[in-house]
Design a protein that fits this description.
alpha/beta; Rossmann fold; eight-stranded mixed beta sheet; 11 helices; globular
């Protein structure tokens, strides 16, 4: 990956593939590696993919103190500007979906189409992760046992059916061991997510929007996807039955197909 200056800090990014640009915004505690090669390989023939690490992650600049979702959206806009990309298709998942919401609201001219996956908008009717799920994740993270922590995250982020597959877990473990995210960065991300609320502003969006959510999502329940779609006039809601939070890990081909079809709306 390559470092580029964005404001007073640097972001680590990578470009691959060919076609119109697609900016992929990763979620809480994730890295650019967490998109997974099976998903990215489905898209490289149709898009120029731009993946990057948030501040505090990988080789991107150190995160000093708290950060807001709006600041991360400014980072995303700054990255596109630094790469001389006037507009791109945008996919944001989980916390990255919150960042994508703020990006589209603040810089609608930069977003050709918007895809919001397994994410949250705040406001009445929304719901964050259940306390018992967070407790289990925190206990595993603070145990000092990295494999236990990854196993807990894996089981919370995929469906029960997906959790039965050891191959998926081994892939996630390899990605996490290659590029770990510091606990203090994860905590900063959690605080940013808890403060996020675009619910009263999503009605301003005119960007073609696709909302994708799995029915077995334990991190951000599927009701959040339905709520977001209800706020955005003309949006399309795609509910993936039996799929967990990391829908693009469990169903990479279907997820890529949805993105391609949605991007075609901007042609």
């Amino acid at each position: 990956m390559t470092l580029v200056s964005v404001g007073d800090h640097q972001l680590d990014y990578e470009r691959s593939g060919a076609g119109p640009p697609l900016l992929l915004i990763m979620g809480m505690s994730g890295t650019a590696l967490h998109w997974g090669e099976p998903f990215l390989s489905q898209l490289r023939g149709d898009f120029e993919l731009i993946v990057y690490d948030h501040r505090g992650v990988g080789s991107s600049s150190r995160l000093d103190g708290p950060v807001t979702i709006a600041q991360m959206a400014d980072d995303a806009a700054g990255l596109l500007t630094a790469l001389e990309i006037e507009s791109a298709h945008v996919l944001g998942i989980s916390m990255g979906g919150m960042v994508a919401q703020e990006l589209a609201l603040a810089h609608p001219e930069m977003v050709r189409t918007l895809t919001l996956g397994c994410t949250y908008c705040g406001g009445e009717g929304s719901s964050l992760t259940e306390p018992e799920v967070l407790q289990g994740l925190a206990e595993a993270m603070l145990s000092g046992d990295r494999v236990r922590a990854v196993r807990a995250a894996f089981e919370a982020n995929v469906s029960p059916a997906g959790a039965e597959g050891e191959e998926l877990f081994e892939r996630l473990l390899a990605v996490t061991e290659e590029r770990a995210v510091a606990v203090e960065v994860v905590m900063a991300h959690m605080q940013a997510c808890a403060a996020h609320d675009t619910s009263s502003r999503l009605g301003e969006l005119t960007t073609p929007t696709l909302v994708v959510h799995g029915t077995e999502d334990r991190m951000l329940p599927v009701a959040n996807g339905r709520l977001i779609a209800s706020h955005i006039t003309g949006s399309r809601l795609e509910i993936l039955d039996g799929v967990g939070h990391l829908f693009f890990w469990e169903q990479p081909e279907r997820a890529a197909d949805l993105l391609r079809a949605h991007a075609a709306l901007a042609v």
